[in-house]
Amino acid sequence: MEENKKDLNENKKPRRNKEAIERHKIIRWILIITVVSFVFSFCFSLGTELVVSHADLIVSIVLLVVIIAISICCDAMGVAITSADPVPFTAMATKKVKGSKTALYILKNADRFSSIFNDVIGDVCGIISGACGASISLMIALKTGGQLWVSIIVSALIAAITIGGKAIMKGIAIKNSTKFVLFFGKFISIFKKERN
User: Fold this and answer.
1) CA angle at residue 112 from 107 to 113, to 5 degrees?
2) Which long-range contacts (CB under 8 A, 24 or more apart) does 120-124 make?
3) Burial label, 50 (beta-carbon count in 10 A; 0-12, 13-18, 19+)
4) pLDDT digit of tens for each residue in the chain (196 aa)?
5) Confidence (pTM)
6) Spatial separation of the C-alpha atoms in residues 40 and 53, rounded to whole Å
């Protein structure tokens, strides 16, 4: 009986160790993503604020369009990563197609990559586009004299363009998820050499 208990305890130890390691990885990832989000948001917000505060209306609008476009594209990439099938990339990797091994790595860590695209970049761009829109509405209000209506219209336009753009791109990303992920894999493989 005692030997059986010892065997059971020994079998439980590796499982507990794996669970502890997994828990540690999750906590570490949460801390990393939080710090990265803060740094990215701070730098991006600072840069946008500096440009908008010293730029004229047209430059501010162009910057706003770029931020919204980044938000839409990153949201699409996050959707493509979560919906892509790894099977075509396995076949491509055997044929040594550039970017396919990186794409497989991305799909194995789909939760993390989609979190970076959707939550970090996408959400930060959404927040900054709102702040940028407020600055633009203030500029327009100073020229026209109708601050309340201008602010409401600019905010509604930003929301409509962002939501509409994301809705369109989500459908495209799901249908072309393999192309999206392979493109990103090729892009990453420019900076990081793929393992054979």
Assistant:
1) 60
2) 120/33, 120/36, 120/37, 120/40, 121/40, 121/70, 121/71, 121/74, 122/71, 122/74, 122/75, 122/78, 124/37, 124/40, 124/41, 124/44
3) exposed
4) 455 555 545 555 566 677 777 788 778 878 887 888 788 778 877 877 777 777 788 888 898 999 999 999 999 999 999 999 999 999 898 888 888 899 999 999 898 899 889 888 888 888 888 888 878 887 887 777 766 677 788 888 988 999 999 999 999 999 999 999 999 999 988 887 766 5
5) 0.76
6) 20
Place of tokens 């392979």: 182
